[in-house]
Amino acid sequence: MVSVIKVEGVGRDFTVRKKVGRLRRNAFVVTAVTDLSFVVQRGEMVGYIGPNGAGKSTTIKMLTGILVPSTGELTVAGLTPSVERTELARKIGVVFGQRTTLWWDLPLRDSFELLRRIYRVPDPRFRTNMRTFSDLLDLGPLLDTPVRQLSLGQRMRGDIAAALLHDPEVVYLDEPTIGLDVVSKSNLRDFLRETNRERGTTVLLTTHDLDDIEQICSRVMVIDHGRLVYDGGLTGLHQLGGARRTLVVDLVEPAAALELPGAETVRVEGPRQWLSFPADASAAPLIADIAERHEVADLSIREPDIEAVIKQLYTNTSAWSSPPPFVE
Amino acid sequence: MGLLYAVAHLSFRRYSTYRAATLAGIFTNCVFGVIICFTYIAVWEQNPTAGGYDVTDALTYVWLGQAMLMTVAMWSGGATDELAGRIRSGDVALDLHRPVSLLGWYLASDLGRAVYHLLSRGVAPTIVGSLLFDLRYPPDVLTWLVFALSVALAVTVSFGVRMLVSASAFWLLDDTGVKQLAAVCATFFSGLTVPLVLFPGWTREVASLLPWASYLQVPADLWLGKLTGLDVLAALGFQAIWTVILLWACHGALILANRKVVVQGG
Ligand SMILES: Nc1ncnc2c1ncn2[C@@H]1O[C@H](COP(=O)(O)OP(=O)(O)O)[C@@H](O)[C@H]1O
Ligand SMILES: [Mg+2]
């Protein structure tokens, strides 16, 4: 395996000047990212999630070189982004969901034409890519429309094609699905999966939409208050942050709420009972315990809702990282 | 080079899509041209050799002023207008990320625009003016060429000024105030309202040294044949020097701006 992105102990502070009183301005230091370390291998599709202000965009900016880290080291495709930004730009593609690289007043086609020249994409390669993207992203009918007349979803498709036109090794997508409808989202995910499979493009994607992650990423990194709080598979995430699974039992006869070690009965409705237990515990002993006491008609297990898991994760980590009480 | 040519070409095309705006602009130029002509006729009746111009020179100057107004984008409407908006929205970070010089990009884009505005907002009012009034024209091909070069330099000087004004948004966030100030300076010191040749005493000397003199007074004097021999070279050299100074200043400002964005985070 070849690592494409290496991040080691990276931190980033911002100095913000705030007005206090009429004329005085005080400088505050805002820490956007602290002690971030991870490695991404070639061809991985990594989801990068976290609440607003967690430091996702700051990380992406550092990985493109438009922001220097305050501390630590990072390399992308063997280059130091902030030092070799121009060289790196030819190897990476970037999409910022709320911004566009396309030229507002020009037809989409002209934007691609300019990008072809900027990145010196060889002619045959350009034509192949244009054909592929037009097919997969359904850009054909949009090529002659000025970008300002495109809908958000159409523009995003254009932006993604623009970011991939020069066959980058790595693409960063900062909230690419924000504001898109269900169909557009699903097309976009298909396209990213396809690109990753066909070209081995490494994808780092930040999002608020966990479906994005569930459907395209094999690995998730969770950042909160500038710290990486989880880095691993999606399944591992379920076991984290005190996530619980639910066992739903249908007894043959209605019974009083079950009292079992290692589980909590959260709801009783006639013969049906809901038992909550830790996600990393096995359900087998629990089921055996119940079967010993009652006749069981049916059983099912509900996996934790990933949304709830992440919410749980954030609240836990916020508790760890909250500053100590102020002492005068 | 291929890239910057494409940028200029697309910019030309882009401005040419605003046809109604162009027609309305030409109409306005013509109306103002006529009004100012009648004012000037009255002035030159009082003083037939004011500033070394006869009345034909003065009327020609009026139409050259209308023609240069949009060609140098004296008040606004240049390709540089976009930059301030992109700085404010933060989109400029994406521009900086591209492997292309921001200065070269905007210069090419503004030149494409200037060619379009010269051909539409420049040529059309001049033709109208020449139908309505008796005007003076360059006597020979060489003068035409010198004038064309001077117009090109007028555009690069005004580009330099406008680019600096827009780049101020990196530090001020909003360039509106600076832009208004720059527009006032351009109107006054280019000689658009009153030709610089009519400025009294030392004010004329000073105004002739400022970059705005490049916008209108210098090309007009070349068109009218007021300058001959070495004075022609001096006039073009004056414009060229301001072009170099301003582009160099823009280059420096963009390096500082880049550092500010990358190191301070915008
Ligand atoms: N240029 C900047 N100047 C000052 N503070 C900033 C700047 N950029 C980001 N921040 C701060 O850094 C933190 C992380 O921001 P960001 O990376 O944009 O978060 P996310 O993308 O995860 O929502 C926030 O507290 C934000 O206010
Ligand atoms: Mg963000």
Intertermini distance of chain B: 30 Å
Low-confidence stretches of chain B: none
For the largest beta-sheet of chain A, the strand count, sense and barrel status come to: 6 strands, mixed
Secondary-structure-derived class of chain A: alpha/beta
Q: At the fourth CATH level, what is the homologous superfamily of the largest domain in chain A?
A: P-loop containing nucleotide triphosphate hydrolases
Element-level helix/strand string of chain A:
EEEHEHEHHHEHEHEEHEEEHEH
Number of domains of chain B: 1
Percent of residues in beta strands of chain A: 25-35%
- In CATH, the topology of the largest domain in chain A is named Rossmann fold
The whole-angstrom Rg of chain B is 19 Å
Write down how many β-strands of chain B occur, each being a DSSP E stretch of 2 or more residues: 0
Strand content of chain B: under 5%
Please provide a written account of the structure.
The complex is a heterodimer of chains A (328) and B (266). Chain A has 328 residues and is an alpha/beta fold. Chain A folds into 2 domains: 44-68 and 78-219 and 233-238, Rossmann fold (3-Layer(aba) Sandwich); 244-303. Chain A has helices at 56-64, 85-89, 108-118, 123-137, 152-164, 182-199, 210-216, 234-238, 284-293, 306-321, and strands spanning 3-19, 25-41, 45-49, 71-76, 92-96, 170-174, 202-207, 219-224, 227-232, 244-251, 264-269, 272-278, 296-302. Chain A is globular and about 75 Å long. Chain B is mainly alpha-helical and 266 residues long. Chain B has one domain (2-259). Chain B is 76% helix and 0% strand. Chain B has 12 helices and no strands. Chain B has helices spanning 2-16, 19-46, 55-71, 81-89, 92-97, 102-132, 141-167, 169-172, 176-189, 201-209, 217-223, 230-264. In chain B, helix 1 crosses helix 6, helix 6 crosses helix 7 and helix 7 packs antiparallel against helix 11 (217-223). The two termini of chain B are 30 Å apart. The A-B interface holds A 12, 14-15, 58, 61, 64-68, 82, 85-87, 89-90, 94, 96, 99-101, 103, 105-106, 110, 113-114, 117-119 and B 2-3, 6-7, 10, 13-14, 17, 89-91, 93-94, 96-100, 261-265. Residues 56-57, 174 of chain A line the site of magnesium ion.
